[in-house]
Amino acid sequence: MFSQFTKWYKVLPSFVIWIMLALFYFVLGAQLSMLKGFFHAIVLTSMQFVVYKVNLRSLMPRYLDHQKTKFRLFNTILILGLATSGVSLEYLFLDSYPSLAPENFSLIGSFIFHSILCLVAFWVTMTKFLVEKQEKTNVEIETLKREKAESELKFLKTQINPHFLFNALNNIYSMAYTGDKSAPEKITMLSDMLRYVLYDCESDYISLYKEVDYINSFLEFQQLKTEKRQNITFNIGSHDENYQIAPMLLVTFVENAFKHSKIEKDKSGFVSISLSQANGKFQFSVENSIPPQQNAKKPNHEKGIGIENARNRLELLYPKKHELTIIHDETNYKIVLKLNK
Fold first, then answer.
1. Confidence class of residue 334 from pLDDT cuts 50, 70 and 90?
2. Of 58, 84, 85, 256, whose CB is crowded by the most CB atoms within 10 A?
3. Each residue of 33-42: b (16+ CB within 10 Å) or e?
4. Pseudo-torsion of CA 272, 277, 279, 281, nearest 10°?
């Protein structure tokens, strides 16, 4: 009955409901006489309408949440007053038209009947008020959640490693200084990477091929740090290039791998990256070596800023649609990210 009322109220305009209620009381009273029907329709409907409007417009908004004692007192006075008025009007009506009076008419019985009608109106009003309040609260909560998520995403996007640009510019400067003919190509590559960070990352999702291009360029600049080629592999399996993914999400794990592997200093170090997609499931893994001197310090890679940011972004953008696994021992550190469609 609770849910039926809310459905009725949303479908039908308020005035239609009151007209239907008045017709209902008219039909009940009209079984004795048309005059009795009009009396019931006017008095009973008006009495419930007053309970409804006074509570909805005044008593509930003012006192229900913060002054419950006053709320109960005012409603008790309102309902008892209206019930008394209803009994008085019915007594006067039956005194004027004694032929319409029932055989066992009782003032107490009439008072109870009018009180019950007022309480029914009160219950309906309370139901409507609480339902609308809950709906408003839900809208406000969803709005706050959306605004919080948007602000967190904007903040997380600003946490991109600032050292990369500095190192890349240093490498290009060295290439230009030594007359390396590939310097213009690297400048173009860096320009594309900056364009990706500054413009493409404004969106919540981008095509996978853009993220892959960025990683390839990142790895190319990483190789420039040493004269000999570093032990870096990037295995790209079958995938949909237009698959939508959060920008700079995968790069975070790649940066984390190079940060902790110290591969440019450790000749035996490695970074192995793989990407694949099949049956609507996307998988990305990054594994790196841990140099002995770093392992002795027992750093907690899982609590790093980059990993924490990645976790937060995954929770915001892929709620219950992702799986992030971190495996590490004394010599290796590996993350495996799985995204569901």
1. very high
2. 256
3. eeebbebbbe
4. 70
Is residue 220 pLDDT above 80, yes or no? yes
Q: HEC states along the chain? A: CHHHHHHHHHHCCHHHHHHHHHHHHHHHHHCCCHHHHHHHHHHHHHHHHHHHHHHHHHHHHHHCCCCHHHHHHHHHHHHHHHHHHHHHHHHHHHHHCHHHCCCCCCHHHHHHHHHHHHHHHHHHHHHHHHHHHHHHHHHHHHHHHHHHHHHHHHHHHCCCCCHHHHHHHHHHHHHHHCCCCCHHHHHHHHHHHHHHHHCHHHCCCEEHHHHHHHHHHHHHHHHCCCCCCCCEEEEECCCCCCCEECCCHHHHHHHHHHHHHCCCCCCCCCEEEEEEEECCEEEEEEEEECCHHHHHHCCCHHHCHHHHHHHHHHHHHCCCCEEEEEEECCCEEEEEEEEEC
Site of tokens 């190789």: 223
For the entire predicted model, the pTM comes to 0.56
**pLDDT at residue 180 in the model:** 80
**What number is the average pLDDT over the span 244-269?**
85
- Tens digits of per-residue pLDDT, 129-182? 888 888 888 888 887 777 776 666 666 555 555 667 777 788 787 778 777 888
Q: What is the pLDDT of residue 272?
A: 94
